[in-house]
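re: ur question from yesterday

yeah so i grabbed the chain u mentioned. its 196 aa long if i counted rite. heres the sequnce exactly as i have it in my notes:
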Amino acid sequence: MLFKQEHLDGVLSGKVSLAFRKWKQPAVKEGSLIHTSIGMVEITGITPCQLNRITAEDASAAGYKNLTTLHTLLAKIPEGTLYKISLRYAAPDPRIELREQTAVSNAEMELLFEKLARLDRYSKQGDWTLEVLRAIQQHPHSKAILLAGKLGREKEWLKENIRKLKNLGLTISHTEGYSLSPLGELLLATHTPKKK
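ran it thru and got these structure tokens back, copy pasting raw so excuse formatting
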């Protein structure tokens, strides 16, 4: 579930507490935690909704200037069930603290390498984790399509897998491209253990 930054800013301040989405199948459920640029956003409720039951107060709580603006945006999506989603700011993104680490124990580093080895092992594309990390290190802030070309990979495959590295605290996403986090730099500076 994606949000505009202005709506996320509203969630963080407490001014935005609702969202409206049209989906064929719900993309979230009550209790879901979503990683966003402001941290973790919790879905506190989700119910099907009729367009004519949305009030001006609902539109305001969803971060829109008026009901007409919200109706116009929803009308652009012809198919799907309309859902009214209650949400709130939950906590800072734990990946931020993780990625800023510049000193980890040998056991913690070994665990990171084990997680990378597991990603490699279950990939149909073969070993890729260290290759992608090194490419990001060598070409920081390069767009996904440029990195994919340098690696001979598909752009969508690369974006999906960089998200996996980000979840481990190893990369940082920017408005344009990616860079290694301090933890990612530390990992590449560490001797890579031999695979068993």
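noticed a couple things. The domain at 5-92 is CATH 2.30.130.30 (Archaeosine Trna-guanine Transglycosylase; Chain: A, domain 4). also The beta strands are 18-23, 33-36, 39-48, 81-91, 171-173, 178-180.
anyway ttyl
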